[in-house]
Amino acid sequence: MTRARQDRLLGLLLREPEWATAAVLADALGVTPRSIRSYVTAVNARVPSGGAVESGPQGYRAGADAAAALRASSEAGTPRDRLHTLVRTLLAAPDGIDVFETADRLHVSPATLDADLARVRGLLGGTELTLERSAARARLRGTEVAQRRLLSRLAHDEMDAGSFDLAALRRTLGAQSVGAQAFGPFKTDLVAELGGLGYFVNEVGIGDVVMHIAIAADRVVQHRDLPPDDRVDGDPARRAVAGILGELTERHLGVRLGGGDREHLATLVLTRVVAPGTGAPRGTAGLDPEVEEAVRAVVDEAAAEFLVDIAHEDFIERFALHVQNLRARAREQTWSRNPLTRSLKASYPMIFEVAVFIASGLQERLGIPLLDDEIAYIAMHVGGRLERSRRADGLLTATIVCPGYYELHELLRSSVDRSLGQAIEVVGVDTRIDPEWAAIDSDLVLTTIDPPSPGDRFVRIQPFLTDGDIERVQAAASRVRRARRLARLRAELERYFSPDAFLHGGSADADEEAVIRSLGSLLVAQGVIDQDYVERTIQREQLSSTAFTDALAVPHALGMTATRTSIAIGIADPSIPWGDGRVQVVAMVAFSESDREAFQTVFEQFVEVFSERESVQRIVRRATDFPGFLDELVAVIDG
């Protein structure tokens, strides 16, 4: 547990570049500030420079070697190191291991090894493997595919946030695993070959497939090949990819894969990391009509529920191909990891919520249970569609004030359009030396002369635009957008809060369901929701954690069925466990049908406010009652 908390401390510091006090970090991890100081000492000891975490008067922040410390292998003999060694030993011994001999070899007592075997049993859920124990012998029983699935689980346990890490993979497979140094060139050539076939390659997920290729190569060297699968002989797409994998594995790793392994790995490639382009070979099955129908129905429902522009034929076709591959992965229980899951959830909560809604619909229609990483891939599809269909009226308007001198104002406008056209739209140019400043109503005023009084929307620039000018305009545009968003949020929130829907404190070990029921009971008492809404909120939480930041959870039900929109607030000090982390603020939101348009404003901007560590601590420390909470929240919003 201590090692895991040290890693989580590093993860928190890497995600947030600002200084953080020991008290703030302690709240996030659910420990004392003294423990934070000991964790920092231990983390710095992982790297020769001792520079994983910097300390200063303002607290702690990630140092130059923080990422290296996070990847550093655990010390030999630690529980996780022993566990992985024990699993490798069991997988390498078809006839089982002698418990007492293995305990001696690992320099632990038989009782300790028995405890480790119990932990191995805990890893076997969903792998179709069983651990048999007979007197002094222990043995893993199950198919070769199931055994590889267990190795994959161990490798992901070693890796941070699902990203591919060769050092972590070697810790899982053992230091003697084949060709670890060759996997960089292997991956480069694989991407090139797939591109040559006409496929678009998903670089986010390809590391996961390379991991499976490493596992396959290691098992083949141990004479643990997969048998051929007669069902795939007629698929030209799979045959083409299988041929590439066989050739590259022999060239780079010196391992000759059998037909079964080539077919298995080709299936992983086709269902995880490629999308067919115009020249790609097509499989014989094509797009399953059942999948296409389900996707079309779910996308239409999501578009209507969230008022998002995603119901387009090109989106539905591409997404249906993804879902078809997703269903194949679900059947094989070979889920894809997504290293962007956490950042997508924190940065784009609205898009992630649409993805959860779609995932719920797919689970209902196609029976596909989806993990957070797979939901994140759906969010990437949704976000890509919304980005392509985003309207130009999201741009800020700007007026250029540049006293006329030959064509100087025309050159300046051209420079602004060229350098800032994606951020602002120039709606006017005033060439007078004494413009009517009060009559200029654009969002920004870019002026080469000093305005009569300063303001957030006035940006002083040079007649010949410089890099510094561009940066100042971009910063001003960001400030204006944020101020506008938060102003809308403040107006909305003041309507939705109630003194009767506020809790402070509570049990430090309360789980998600208990907190949801406590906050839900306050909204039920107000007649805002019924008990069914509370149960559906718990079901939504089970689909994917609503902890969108390291401090805030926003539980809610799928479906806007409240009689009116209302928010119940719970403040936890110290933090409470939620999902894979801990939170200090829980905002249970009940949305009504009439407030669909407010959903995006409230949801995304509320999460944005609580993504700032200092803002969270200010609210938590001072909001001991409802008036204090509202005062602090408004103060934070107003800056």
UniProtKB/TrEMBL annotation:
InterPro entries noted in UniProt: BglG_antiterminators, PRD, PRD_sf, PTrfase/Anion_transptr, PTS_EIIA_type-2_dom, WH-like_DNA-bd_sf
Pfam families listed in its UniProt record: PRD, PTS_EIIA_2
SUPFAM superfamilies attached here? Phoshotransferase/anion transport protein (SSF55804), PTS-regulatory domain, PRD (SSF63520)
Can you give the residue ranges of the PTS EIIA type-2 domain?
495-639
PRD domain location is 286-392
Gene3D superfamilies found in the cross-reference section:
Mannitol-specific EII, Chain A (3.40.930.10), PRD domain (1.10.1790.10), Winged helix-like DNA-binding domain superfamily/Winged helix DNA-binding domain (1.10.10.10)
Keywords linked to the UniProt accession = Repeat
PANTHER family, per database record: CRYPTIC BETA-GLUCOSIDE BGL OPERON ANTITERMINATOR, TRANSCRIPTIONAL REGULATOR MANR
Record protein name field: BglG family transcription antiterminator
- Species source reads Microbacterium fluvii
